[in-house]
Amino acid sequence: MITKFKIFEGSLSVITLDRPRVAKIINEDSVIDYILNKLGEKEDYKYLGGYAFGHAYQVGNKVLKLTSDENEFEVANDLSNKKFWFKYLINVYDTRFLTTPTEGYTTETNPFATYEDDERDIIEFPYLILMDYIHTLNRVESHVYAHKMCKMMRSILLVFVNEQKFDTVETFMKYYIDVWGTNTKNWDLEFYERYKDIIHKFIEGWIGMKREANQFGLKLTDAHEKNVGWNSLNNLCHFDIRSPVSGFDPLHKNKFTNSIESGPSSKVKSYKTLELPKDLVSN
Q1: Are residues 148 and 227 in the same domain?
Q2: What mean pLDDT is reported for the chain?
Q3: 20 to 30 Å CA-CA from 104: which of 84, 129, 183, 197?
Q4: Does residue 58 sit in the same domain as residue 41?
Q5: Same domain (yes/no): 130, 263
Q6: Could you tell me if 117 and 219 lie in one domain?
Q7: 248: left (phi over 0), alpha (psi -120 to 50) or beta
Q8: For residue 158, which of 110, 200, 191, 203 has the smallest C-alpha distance?
Q9: How far apart are CA 218 and CA 211, in angstroms?
Q10: From CA 36, how far away is CA 44, in angstroms rounded?
Q11: Of the candidates 36, 56, 7, which has an alpha carbon nearest to the alpha carbon of residue 226?
Q12: CA 24, 26, 30, 34 torsion: positive or negative?
């Protein structure tokens, strides 16, 4: 049997799948403590929550996220290697692929083998991301962000209009009213006047996101209200960034054998690993 680690409601549990090796968790709290110590993080942590693809912990002014989303890991890994301090996109400090211990296996010297050759167990959420802590939108902000008019504005600034140059809120609003002002579906004057300050803050953030994304060749297609918030600069910031893909499988399966691979696919060109020790995970 193979054992996968699944983090649920702040704790680690065990799920078994077919494969000739079993790992058991010795101390679930110590697993997170060990990871944070290896990353050089000394702050206490608290569980923020989770969903189908992963779970997050606040560590001071940072967030430790464990996820099964390879696409998110790919983007985060790329961002962590940029020598640039982002003001509107998430700053990523570290990324690791978590592995379980294997006798005689050295992660620093031995590249990941194929599923058939590698005897290590697979962790349910093997992709580790250490990033800035972002204050998520409050109820009113989320309501405004999800409004059909704001969705249209966001699509124009982040997706549709690559050739347009909008450097300020004023230049964009002039364009938007000129083009869409007579279309009641995409222009709600009463709503705009009521929430103008929030909407302008969003527009400023989308302009900044687009500028930084263009600088590094990123495409932003997933900046919905659950993936944005306010960073330490009080700027709208996009986190959990994913690049556009089709048919994505969060646990990356081999298309020919339908078996779970032992590591990130070839799309992730260079990444670091972190092996959990035997005193925390045993056969």
Answers
A1: yes
A2: 77
A3: 129
A4: yes
A5: yes
A6: no
A7: beta
A8: 203
A9: 10
A10: 9
A11: 56
A12: negative
Q: H-helix or E-strand containing 168?
A: none
Beta-bridge partner residues of 49: 56
- Which residues does 234 contact at the CB level (< 8 Å), separation at least 6? none
Neighbours of 247 (CB within 10 A): 5
Are 195 and 60 part of one and the same domain?
A: no
Helix (H) or strand (E) holding 45: strand 45-51
> How many C-beta atoms lie closer than 10 Å to residue 248's C-beta?
13
* Nearest C-alpha neighbor of 264 from the set 17, 100, 101, 99: 99
- Domain holding 85, by residue range, is 2-134+245-282
Partnered with residue 55 across adjacent β-strands are: 50, 66
- Chain segment 211-247, per-residue pLDDT in tens: 999 888 888 989 999 999 999 999 999 999 987 643 3
Using CA atoms, how far residue 255 sits from 68, 72, 77, 117, in Å, is 17, 20, 24, 17
Both 115 and 142 in one domain: the answer is no
CA within 13 Å, CB half, 188:
17
Looking at the fold, whether 189 and 103 belong to one and the same domain comes out as: no
Per-residue pLDDT, 207: 95
Measured between its terminal Cα atoms, the distance across the chain in Å is 11
Number of domains in the chain: 2
Q: What is the pLDDT of residues 177-189, one digit of tens each?
A: 998 887 777 899 9
More confident position, 258 or 84: 84
CB contact set of 263 (below 8 Å; sequence gap of 6+): 97, 99, 112
Tokens representing residue 140 in the block: 């009113």
The candidate with the shortest Cα–Cα distance to 276, out of 83, 87, 128, is 128
